[in-house]
């Protein structure tokens, strides 16, 4: 079985894009591969966080993973900060990485914008921590959205450079991008990925949104010129909405288009809101049930962290020996 790794930042705003782009594929992968999945809380603190809120979000993310079908008996599930080897390897890899490589990271440019000199150093260097996350576990495959492919390429470059300079140590990972549904786009801007850090909540459908919120957001979603419910080139808004409809109902976009021949956006949006609501309700009930038993969530994370520390330490022993700090 291939060793596969995936992770998400803890957030109270996990949305449809997170589910279809990362969580659902992980549920499938755990049945076929050796899957490592964790809550990247150290990545979350690259921007200011309220401590109590971050703690709640770590538990919420864990509950959501479990509710969606992640099985800790099949998947190594843990909290990133509970495995200190992640931060240790990140520092070593920062000494291998080059400034120019990090300056070329497009996500940093997008997030920092014109305020690059005022954002945290962590926001600049977090791709190196992501590389450490990947390389610690002999990862062969990293499922990512197209926007994260550049970060996996950095992990590859750092692994190859370290292996060249210090001897064969790391497996060189490969990115895996899901062809359909990997990039669910924003409802308010179909040219950008649905994002929990978006300026407006109208950008995304949260996994916890109720029926009223979903209907309001879908009705407010931007559309393309014309009235045809049709996907295709030059129609990014309807392509995105039809993709969401298709992912939720497991029906092809062509079938859905045929249902709305001669109908307008109003009918389509009302139905889209309904199918999303019906799809989310059982998932929301499962998440709430898990959150009612926080102590069990902590036990699951702690058990996973213990196993992860054992795996990570085996790799770190080799790294320390290679660079000359092991006495």
From TrEMBL:
Q: Which HAMAP family match?
A: Trp_tRNA_synth_B
Q: What is its EC number?
A: 6.1.1.2
> Keyword annotations for this protein?
Aminoacyl-tRNA synthetase, ATP-binding, Cytoplasm, Ligase, Nucleotide-binding, Protein biosynthesis
Catalyses: tRNA(Trp) + L-tryptophan + ATP = L-tryptophyl-tRNA(Trp) + AMP + diphosphate + H(+)
Family, per the entry? Belongs to the class-I aminoacyl-tRNA synthetase family.
Which InterPro entries would you find in this protein's record? aa-tRNA-synth_I_CS, aa-tRNA-synth_Ic, Rossmann-like_a/b/a_fold, Trp-tRNA-ligase, Trp-tRNA-ligase_bac-type, Trp-tRNA_synthetase
Q: What is this protein called?
A: Tryptophan--tRNA ligase
| Superkingdom of source | Bacteria
Q: Which stretch carries the motif 'HIGH' region?
A: 10-18
Q: What does this protein do?
A: Catalyzes the attachment of tryptophan to tRNA(Trp).
Keyword Chloroplast carried by entry: no
Indicate the quaternary assembly.
Answer: Homodimer.
Tell me the Pfam families matching this sequence: tRNA-synt_1b
Q: Which SUPFAM superfamilies match?
A: Nucleotidylyl transferase
Tell me where it resides. Answer: Cytoplasm
**Which GO cellular component terms, listed alphabetically, does the Swiss-Prot or TrEMBL entry include?**
cytosol
Family matches, as PANTHER family: TRYPTOPHAN--TRNA LIGASE, MITOCHONDRIAL (PTHR43766:SF1)
Q: What GO MF annotations does this protein's record show?
A: ATP binding; tryptophan-tRNA ligase activity
Look up and give the organism this protein is from. Answer: Candidatus Uhrbacteria bacterium RIFCSPHIGHO2_01_FULL_63_20
Per UniProt, L-tryptophan binds at 133
Which GO biological process categories is it annotated with? tryptophanyl-tRNA aminoacylation
The residues that hold ATP are 9-11, 17-18, 145-147, 184, 193-197
* CDD domains (alphabetical): TrpRS_core
Q: Where is this motif: 'KMSKS' region?
A: 193-197
């Amino acid at each position: 079985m291939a060793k596969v790794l995936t992770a998400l930042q803890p957030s109270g705003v996990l949305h449809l894009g997170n589910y279809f782009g990362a969580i659902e594929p992980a549920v499938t992968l755990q049945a076929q591969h050796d899957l490592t999945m964790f809550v990247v809380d150290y990545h979350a603190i690259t921007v200011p966080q309220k401590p109590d809120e971050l703690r709640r979000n770590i538990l919420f993310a864990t509950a959501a993973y479990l509710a969606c079908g992640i099985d800790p008996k099949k998947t190594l599930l843990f909290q990133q900060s509970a495995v200190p080897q992640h931060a240790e390897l990140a520092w070593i890899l920062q000494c291998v990485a080059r400034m120019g490589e990090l300056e070329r990271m497009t996500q940093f440019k997008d997030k920092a914008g014109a305020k690059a000199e005022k954002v945290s150093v962590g926001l600049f260097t977090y791709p190196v921590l992501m590389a450490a996350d990947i390389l610690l576990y002999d990862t062969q495959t990293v499922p990512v959205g197209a926007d994260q492919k550049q970060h996996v390429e950095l992990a590859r470059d750092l692994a190859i450079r370290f292996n060249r300079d210090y001897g064969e140590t790391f497996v060189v990972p490969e990115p895996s991008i899901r062809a359909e549904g990997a990039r669910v786009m924003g409802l308010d801007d179909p040219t950008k990925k649905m994002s929990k850090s978006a300026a407006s909540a109208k950008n995304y459908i949260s996994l916890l949104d109720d029926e009223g919120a979903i209907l309001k957001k879908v009705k407010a979603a931007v559309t393309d010129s014309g009235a045809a419910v049709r996907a295709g080139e030059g129609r990014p808004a309807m392509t995105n909405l039809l993709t969401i409809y298709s992912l939720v109902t497991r029906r092809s976009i062509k079938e859905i288009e045929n249902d709305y021949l001669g109908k307008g956006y109003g009918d389509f949006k009302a139905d889209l809101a309904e199918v999303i609501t019906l799809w989310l309700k059982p998932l929301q009930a499962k998440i709430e049930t898990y959150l009612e038993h926080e102590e069990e969530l902590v036990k699951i994370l702690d058990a996973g962290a213990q196993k992860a520390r054992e795996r990570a330490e085996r790799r770190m022993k080799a790294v320390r020996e290679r660079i000359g700090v092991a006495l």
